[in-house]
Amino acid sequence: MATLEKAKKRAPGNKALFTTFTLSDKEFEIIRVLVKEKTGISLGLHKRDLVVSRLSRRLRALGLSSFKDYINHLKNKDDGDELVQMINRITTNKTDFFREKHHFEYLTNILLPQLYQEGEKTGKRELRVWSAGCSSGEEPYTLAMTMSDFFKDHPNWRFKILATDLDTTILTKASQGEYDEALLNPVPKAFKARYFARRRTPDGIIYKAKPELRNLIMFRKFNLMSPSYSLKVTLDFIFCRNVMIYFDTADKTSMMEKFHKLLRPGGHVFVGHSESLMMVKHLFKYVATTTYVKV
Question: Of 9, 184, 202, 283, which is the most buried if we count CB atoms within 10 A?
Answer without folding.
Answer: 184
